[in-house]
Design goal:
It comes from Chromatocurvus halotolerans. By secondary structure, this protein is an alpha/beta fold. It has helices spanning about 5, 25-40, 50-60, 80-85, 100-110, 125-135, 155-160, 165-175, 180-190, 195-205, 210-220, 225-230, and strands at about 15-20, 45, 65-70, 95, 115-120. It folds into 2 domains: about 5-135, Rossmann fold (3-Layer(aba) Sandwich), CATH 3.40.50; about 155-220, Arc Repressor Mutant, subunit A (Orthogonal Bundle), CATH 1.10.10.10.
Amino acid sequence: MSAMSSASSCESPSSRTLVIADDHPLFRQALMQVLGERFPGALLRDAEDVAALQGVLDVCGEVDLLLLDLHIPGAVGLSALSWLVGQRPQLPVILISANTHPETVRRAIDHGAAAFLSKSADVDTMVGCMEAVLDGRRGLHPGLEASAEGVDLSGLDTAEALGNLTPQQFRVLNMLAEGLLNKQIAHALEVREVTVKAHITEIFRKLGVHSRTQAVLALGSLVIAPPDALSRPPGA
């Protein structure tokens, strides 16, 4: 199922609406099949990147559960999670990743994830976690350890500020982090360059920064280090 068809067909009545956002087609399709079997009658939608996810959420309106890939294209580290928590505080987000280092799990929970799942978790573990989150439980990480202390909290202020960005501003900010020029961003978003400049001005104001470099550094505070880097002792 393509993201476009997902976003254009959220009109059928359903007891629940579940969304999967992941850029790996095979994983996404397999998970869609599992959810279809375990949550009969639920409305299932998928997206392969942040832009497609924004489209799905706009069309579907109320969503009961979102399964979000930690490394979803169009975002940096925990930025997509942080933006969603600010924009849709009632939407429970389960973060999914192959990076299950205890510090990664703890940071995800601290930044608002309802739960954290390993991509290698078995079907029963995944479904059980989803059911628990749908029942209102939070802070879950079945089968995974989460650091109890010493986790970097420097990105929490940026995470909160991201929630004030519009969907287009969020996309512009992440394009700035990719090193794109205003002209390139305008072309990608199919808008005028003056519109991009206006978005950047608002991004600076909302993040409390005064330059592109400062904005990118702020977003960088939400980057997730690879597991091998997290496992090294300080200074190694």
